[in-house]
Amino acid sequence: MVYFFGGIMIKTENPKKLYEKLELAKRQLKNAKSREERIALSNYIYCLLYSIKIVSNEENDPILKDIYGNYKNITLFNKKIDGHLDKVLRNFVISKDFHKDFFEKMFRKTTKRIKFLEEDEYSGITTLSEGDFYNIFFEFMSKLGLSKYFDKFVKDHRIYNTNVQFDINTFGYTLFNPISKDSDIFIEGLEYDIFSMYVLAHEFGHVYDLNHFNNNIADYNKYVYESFNGESISKTFERLFIDFLLENNILKDETKDQLFDMINYNYEYIVSSYIISLLPDILLIDGSYQDLSRTKIYKLVERNFKEKNSIRKFINKSCNFDVSETFTYSYGDIYSIFLKEMVKNNDYKLDVLEEIFEYRNSLFKEDMLNKFNITPDNYVKLYEKDIDILKKKTN
Ligand SMILES: [Zn+2]
Q1: How far apart are CA 310 and CA 271, in angstroms?
Q2: How far is the CA of 231 from the centre of ligand 1 (A)?
Q3: Cα dist. 202→15, 105, 342, 383 in Å?
Q4: Which residues surround ligand 1, an ion (CB under 5 A)?
Q5: Residue whose C-alpha is closest to residue 11's, from 189, 146, 135, 171
């Protein structure tokens, strides 16, 4: 069945609507009722200015003074953000023994299994027509009961292509106005292929997640700055999308390549998490571990590893040492493997995700994992299914 109507472009490359959103957000900032609202809006405006810059290929960086009005506001904003980060690090140190034990098991169990992946040549990437791209993605979103979301995003021109390279391993992001709940998606080098579709699935996870926020802006800020849960739903959408393609025999080899990349990318976060959890409290609590050389970090942790060469290489090249980012992605991956099963067992209805919404804005607590029966052993049981799909590739 063809759902695609000619004449509508999926990709947007004109920043006009973003300028309108900027005017609205500036008014909202002026009328903000609380400091929490000002923090959330300031962050939104900052990201919006960045988005305008990259969509319109402008050279100049956003000027902070223009956003927050005056120097005093910038200082207050930064102070508030530092306060959140401080809390994250303190909380991290409190649960560090748990993280260390958890990620040591995760590391050992996944290392043993990831070796079975056959590193085949990648298949080529098929460029689809815009109509096919639309139809495949529409079908996926319909399965989740979200086809209207997707349709609205296309019709409202909220899916942007940017030609700027983001950070390593980041291929897209979602811009969300927490007051008006308006969102836009940005994808690096959007082409009509599986790769951009996979990024789009991830970003729609963020849209779904953020749209289910209540109106408490303080909770929203905690979610953004303090919790490790911010990638759980988006990564669940990635996994659901891969399963959808495999089950429907769409772009099968390319989907397996995507799964292969996803497993390797998640594995890097598991290893990084384990390494960070081995660092001494005193260096973590004030963030001074960030100033250590990679050689020094290797010396601090190497006695925990048998395969010293590969760990040394990993620390020098790929390790991510940002506590918030690393643990948000690694726990996001861990949650997602369980949440995906829950959604599928619930006939693809997403209401099961509401269980995580109840506490998603909290600092890390072990109980959160117990709620979904998340342990390294249970993770690996599900992980093996993915490894098996790729093992069979050459048989
Ligand atoms: Zn994300």
Answers
A1: 11
A2: 5
A3: 22, 27, 18, 19
A4: 231, 234
A5: 189
Cβ atoms 140, 241 nearer than 8 A = yes
pLDDT of residue 311: 96
**What is the per-residue pLDDT across 190-239, written as a single tens digit (0 to 9) for each?**
999 999 999 999 999 999 999 998 889 999 999 999 999 999 999 999 99
d(CA 115, CA 216): 45
Distance from residue 248's CA to the centre of ligand 1 (Å): 25
CA of 211 to the centre of ligand 1 (A): 15
Mean per-residue pLDDT of the chain: 91
Residue 317 buriedness (CB in 10 A; 0-12 / 13-18 / 19+):
exposed
Instruction: Give the separation between CA 62 and CA 45, rounded to whole angstroms.
Output: 10
Q: What is the pTM of this model?
A: 0.94
Phi/psi at 38 (5° precision): -65, -40
Q: How far is the CA of 239 from the centre of ligand 1 (A)?
A: 13
CA distance 196 to 198: 5
**Structure tokens, 229:** 């849960």
- State the pairing for strand pair 182-188/159-162: parallel
